[in-house]
Amino acid sequence: MKYAIIVLALFTLTACSKDEVAPDSTKTGTLSIQFDNIAGDRNLQLGTGVYTNAAGETFSVDMLKYFISNISVKNSQGQTYTVPQDSCYFLVSEEDGSSQFVKVHVPEGEYTSLSFIVGVDSLRSTMDISKRTGVLDPSAGMDEGMYWGWNSGYIFFKMEGTSNVVPIDASGQHKFRYHIGGFGGYNAVTFNNIKTITIDLTTAGIAKVVDGRIPNIHLMADILKAFTGTTNISLAEWSTIMVSDYSVNVANNYQKMFIHDHTEN
Amino acid sequence: MTILKTSKKLKVILGFILFLVACKKATEVTAFIGFQQPASFPAPVYNLAGNNITEDGFILGRKLFYDARLSRNNTISCGFCHLQTSAFTHHGHDVSHGIDDRLGKRNAPPIMNLAWNTSFMWDGGVFDLDLQPIAPITNEVEMDETVENVMVKLRATSEYPALFKKAFGSEEITTARFMKAMSQFMVMLVSNQAKFDSVQAGLKTFSADEQKGYTLFQAKCSSCHPAPLFTDYSFRNNGIGIGPNNDMGRYDVTVNANDAYKFKVPSLRNLAYSAPYMHDGRFYTLSGVLDHYNSEVKDMTTLDPLLKQNGVLGIPLNADEKTYLLAFLNTLNDKTFITDKRFSEESQ
User: Could you tell me whether strands A207-209 and A109-118 are parallel, antiparallel, or unpaired per DSSP bridges?
Assistant: First the structure.
């Protein structure tokens, strides 16, 4: 009996400390999170835009894709709601406008903080193939795809483009290829580039979720940040970054590329 | 008189019973048996609970395995580089020979006893059999296709939707179903009927040379190649030295300097059918392999410590010992496996 009480007490404590209680679980609304890709003070334009990185090198971007997953929101009381994982994997692609609006269902409420992963969590990265549907279907080709078939794992962030400072490659192009992934390894410990981003919404506008309206958290994703922050990355020096320890530097940089611009309620 | 009569009657009855048994046996041979756990093998690593092996799934997987639609220009099937008669390797090819006569950088490994593999490929880059086919399909020097487009091609055929329905309950063709069917076929490729297995089961005996070879093998080889699967699935640098293409093996997957030039320890089953040997197929004979271990092991920072004991490089073997080892290795060849009609391209 004594033990039962202690166990019950512990259980209650655990429940409280987790703060996983949904703010109002009876009614839900749609929350939109916009990933608006930019390059410094310019809008990102695939192919045609010319940008300058922190190393002073000019370049263009032909492809930009990244995974957003494991979204959660927090209200001012500190209560967190985590979107069910099965419906929380999104692939943002610069060439597909609608993919830049990530829409999730959350309980009605006013949210002051947003959290998400850039990439795919390690659990899902090792799940049975029947649990890898939609954007996680590892079926696309090596060029367009976001999956390494030869080294089982998702590419979390893929940016390709050209720069005159990059040495000419076998295809005759001055191409740079940044394919950043790595969930920490399955049967050996490897680098881990899973990045959890938490964004405070109180300065630029909290999100008020009510049924029937779709508030939009407008984030800017500044790709110039991928080249700087913790490490200045030179295209001339690093034109190909894929499965390597150096990829950690790109991920450490781009985890700071998301800026909350405003919220449309 | 009565005794004779009875015995005649008995004979007739016995004959009839025998006939019945024979009939039953005949139907048993053709019936689908499914995955059978060999008594002498450990429990499989592959998650059989997540992919129930059925006759229809196996037949679909076999058809996919031998279907050249899996490649960009419909010329290369899995069976192209994995021939049953060569224990599902590419006979005579040092490195894989794929689409448009492109050459890969590694030797096509045998497809056998995959249910016990803890990882796949020479570098172990793939950790789940259900994900394995993606690698050769998308590799530009092998099949140079996308899995996505394979699905499109299969959906457009007249036969596959019905085969998927038989195997999975509906005509829907998805990546997951495709991979599960492929795995059903590959998991069934069990090789456990070599002479060695019969000796272990007490049904046959080793010759004198084979026995001597077995004793030597246990002393000198079995720490990396333990029975019954004859590999411990670890990654090791066996001192063959850096190849012309500087293939760093396991390092490519883990980016760990300690893994440089390490490759997965291969099984020693069916060696008679699967020459050439090593990750790049550099040895065409087993004798060459033994010569390597005897006197050609190169010292490198990641060389396996077992190949440099007490400062001595390699595994010293005299001519007699080589003969005995070769005799023993011959007992690991499984003729039944490479002639099993259930696995053949012609069976469809």
Answer: antiparallel
- pLDDT, one tens digit per residue, over A56-108 is 999 999 999 999 999 999 999 999 999 999 999 999 999 999 999 999 999 99
Residues 169-198 of A with CB under 8 A from B: 185-191
Closest CA to B262 of B245, B278, B281: B278
Give the CA-trace dihedral at B30, B33, B39, B43, to 10 degrees.
150
Among residues B231, B249, B230, the alpha carbon closest in space to that of B239 is found at B249
pLDDT tens digit string along B47-65? Answer: 999 999 999 999 999 999 9
Category of A210 on φ-ψ map: left (φ > 0), alpha (ψ -120 to 50) or beta: beta
Distances (CA, A) of B238 to A99, B260, B332: 49, 12, 21
From B46, B217, B61, select the one nearest B117 (Cα to Cα): B46
| Contacts of residue B44, Cβ cutoff 8 Å, sequence gap at least 6 | B35, B37, B115, B116, B187
CB A209 within 8 A of CB A109: yes
**Which of A139, A149, A151 is opposite residue B148, by nearest beta carbon?**
A139
Residue spans of the domains in chain A: they are 23-264
Chain B residue with CA closest to A127: the answer is B128
Read off the pLDDT band of B105 (50, 70, 90): confident
All residues of chain B having their beta carbon less than 8 Å from the beta carbon of residue A122 are none
| Contact in structure between B181 and B167 (CB atoms under 8 Å) | yes
* Contact criterion met (CB < 8 Å) for A151 and B126: yes
Token look-up 């291969």 returns B266
Q: Please, what's the largest Cα pairwise distance for chain B?
A: 89
Rg (CA), chain A: 20
> Which one, of B133, B35, B24, B37, lies nearest residue B77 by Cα?
B133
Query: Does residue B192 sit in helix, strand or coil?
Result: coil
B253 in contact with A at a CB cutoff of 8 Å?
yes
Which domains does chain B show, CATH number per domain? 48-191 (1.10.760.10), 195-336 (1.10.760.10)
The two tokens of residue A253 are 């940089």
Q: Cβ atoms within 10 A of the Cβ of A134, count?
A: 10
DSSP state of B249: B
Structure tokens that stand for B252 in this block: 């490519």
The yes/no answer to whether this complex scores an ipTM above 0.85 is no
Within chain A, how many helices (H) and strands (E) appear?
Answer: 3, 16
**Which H helix or E strand runs over A260?**
strand A258-264
Q: Between chains, do B254 and A185 touch, taking CB under 8 Å as contact?
A: yes
